[in-house]
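Our working data are protein records whose layout never changes between entries. The record below serves as our worked example for the rest of this section:
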Amino acid sequence: MVSSPSQYGEKATYNNMILTMKKILKTIVPIVLAALVLAGGAGIWAWQTAARRDAVEGKLQLHFIDVGQADAALLILPTGERIMIDTGTKESGEAILSHLAKWNVGALDLVILSHNHDDHAGGLAVLADAMPVGGVLYAGEAPADCGVPMRAVSAGHSFAIGEVYFSILGPLSEAGEENRSMILRIDYGVRSFLFTGDAEAGEEELLLATAPTLLNADLLKVGHHGSATSSTETFLAAVSPEVAVISASADNDYGHPSPQTVSRLRALDCMVYRTDQSGTLVFLCDGTILSRYVS
């Protein structure tokens, strides 16, 4: 169990992070190649659909909760810890609590806030009032006090919970709260996941210049609800995701997701999933195979 954000690792330099990732890759690449041979080539990367609740046991679960024009994701780790990445709006708090109850989540070990905008951090107080929350990690402006231990983090911080590794790549920019969003990379086995909050093109450019080797990910939580001001061609090419998830409400006033963003993703042969079309989305990962859970 995670009891406090104070235990999350020492601050590391980008060079150390890159060296660490290279060491990990040197270890896993031979394993992946061997598995590809045994599986007959493409089997290890085949997109799977899990249809039974017992299929989730012992796997990393990623729940992208339908909270309308907002962001809220639940991670359930193979070792049982429950982590929220963003908490939607205050108004969407009940929808989040309903989803947590459905999955027997009665406490949160950690909440990670990408930035302090209402559509990302507004539901924090609702969750803290409803259940125990071990701690909050945030980037940029501090969220309002809700009686939970909080810690600011910045680019270079990293920590691990079991075999799941968390690396904070940003924010690198000081221009605007969107571009001060936390850029969070999560690694489990040979799979990786990238969360970019509301980061826009300026922050993406800094990431490409500073940590290009750490951007490649199998699943991308698309920045800023799929806005045209995020997800540049160059950035998406560096990430090269197999799966992209966009959180937005149907017929929203902002035109999210932008048709240009969706087109850029599809040009990469990326599977694009949207909460405005599919509702809440759940993905499973055993460290090798990434699958979508269908109840």
In short: DSSP finds eight helices and 16 strands in the chain. Confidence is low (pLDDT under 50) at residues 1-48. The CA atoms of residues 119 and 284 lie 25 Å apart.
